[in-house]
Specification:
The chain has 106 residues and is an alpha+beta fold. It is built from two helices and six strands.
Length: 106
């Protein structure tokens, strides 16, 4: 059985979060769902994937959701892909999981 926990991993750098980005959406939304096939959390952004605009919107949106400054959200892999891994700094894995669970499952 897969769960949100499969998209989140603790490391010495911070909390790794696997995301799937849907650029060019009508509205920005995070988190939209957990994708069990990709083991990732889905995020919709209005910006298109050009000139790093979608990546910037991803960072700002995720930072706002977790109450972090944007400098504490870093895209560590997948800069040019929809599948990305972001590092969340200065937050515990428990806080990340709790916020995601509350948002996705009420």
């Amino acid at each position: 059985m897969t769960s949100i926990k499969d998209a989140v991993q603790q490391s010495s750098q911070g909390v790794f979060l696997r995301i799937h980005v849907m650029p060019g959406s009508s509205q920005t939304q995070f988190p939209t769902a957990y994708n069990p096939w990709r083991n990732s959390i889905e995020i919709k952004v209005q910006s298109n994937a050009k000139e790093n605009k979608a990546n910037s919107e991803v960072v700002v949106t995720i930072a706002g959701f977790f109450g972090l400054p944007p400098k504490n959200v870093v895209i560590s892999s997948g800069l040019k892909n929809r599948e990305k891994t972001v590092i969340l700094k200065q937050i515990t894995i428990e806080a990340v999981l709790q916020k995601l669970e509350r948002s996705l499952h009420g």
